[in-house]
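Design review, sub-item: ligand-bound model
Attendees: FS, YL, KQ
YL presented the inputs for the nicotinamide-adenine-dinucleotide complex:
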Amino acid sequence: MSPSHLSAAPHSENGSVAAASLPSAAAQLVERLGTGRATIGVVGLGYVGLPLAVECADQGFETLGIDLDADRVGQLNAGENYLDDLEDETVRRLVDDDRLKGTTDFDRAADVDVFFVCVPTPVTDTNEPDTSYIQSAAESIAESLRPGQLIVLRSTTYPSTTEEVVQPILAEAAEAQGLELGEDYFLAHSPERIDPGNEEYTTANTPVVVGGATETGTQVAVRALEAIVNEVHAVANPKVAEMEKLLENIFRSVNIALVNELAQLCERIGDVSMWEVVQAAATKPFGYMPFYPGPGLGGHCIPIDPHYLSWLARKHDFETSFITLSARINEQMPFYVVESVVEEIARRPVALPEAEVLVLGVAFKRNVDDTRHAPAATIIRLLREKGIGAVRYHDPHVEAFQAPGRDGGAAVDVPPVDLTPEVLRRHDAAVIVTDHDAFDPHFIAEHARSIVDTRNALEAVTDPGLREKITLLGSS
Ligand SMILES: NC(=O)c1ccc[n+]([C@@H]2O[C@H](COP(=O)([O-])OP(=O)(O)OC[C@H]3O[C@@H](n4cnc5c(N)ncnc54)[C@H](O)[C@@H]3O)[C@@H](O)[C@H]2O)c1
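KQ shared the predicted structure:
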């Protein structure tokens, strides 16, 4: 995998071909990749781009990280890691060794052989794809496009973005120089699969998919990715790669919606816990994969990406019913959780304006610091709209947190608190929104007055006296 293990020697597997049979610009690029002399440019140094840049540099490539955010670039150039998943020591070593550098401009873009574009793909207020970051990155790359460059889009997006948004921008610049796609420069889509917080699967050992805009584009992109990732699967074109990523995310969204709906049914049926049901079903060694209920979806991908496909489907007069239905069920979960919290408080001798609620975990998933689209924000907004006197939070990964104001008002700070016996006792209810490993189930169960557990984080607590204090989502 390291450049020293690669060579420009003939290689016929998985879309790679003998360098000799490639157009000369492609053959030279493959040779530069094989000998470790290629310069890699990673555009966008966020949750996706920084780990990728670190992996490229760690494999021996000179790596240039380009990000418009001067704070991120400043931190990187000071050798400071700003992501939980990366080792501080690795980032410092690569920066000190001059293998990894950050920059806020594209001045050195002509030095780059392979660009990996990892910029955000949000949705607009009306849930339409916002490809402006991709366009802007492509325009910056196009300004100094030269023969022998490969551009790989890694952002998640709707099928046809690579060929209909990125390709025309590059083609305009190429035309002025007489460069031809697939002969002189190359374009591909390879969706990112990183799973922040996952210690087992990282950039290097998570297989990736790639589809080039031309056959040669696929071949050189396979070689570029093989230099940093163990397993590369080539597909027919960028659209297949774009679509498969959306399938992965929609698959999760649909299955989580299914268990969220059934969790609500279990509460009505009584004497049946959805958690036990899923664990039991998971004993089947084939044809089933466990998904668990929760307080709603968060992060930059699963709540957002399906909208990209719905939008494209509408353009083709097609309705993606699974996406719409699962989004509706998942987006309703924070409301369901808040009802449980209010019911909990109603059992106590306290009126809502005097009630105090502690939210445990505001990151969108366990053991990460990412709060983008976290269900905790909606839960806190709804608790405030219900008139709860005070809502505070504790999250060992998140120092500061804001939630939207009441009735659409501006975002307001949510006060953070330490997790002490006094703090737990002071609040009328604690609601576990994120099941960080740092949370001690027995400590929480012992000191809290009542707990709404949306993640089965307190499963280890079996003492009947303590269990009485716990309301578990999907169980009654
Ligand atoms: N976060 C994840 O777990 C994850 C997983 C798989 C795929 N993705 C996808 O990867 C893409 C990036 O996600 P992320 O979480 O890393 O986003 P992020 O917001 O953490 O990072 C994106 C970075 O791009 C920078 N940027 C924006 N426009 C730029 C430009 N024109 N030039 C240079 N830099 C620019 C931003 O300043 C930011 O630092 C998205 O499409 C996302 O859907 C994310």
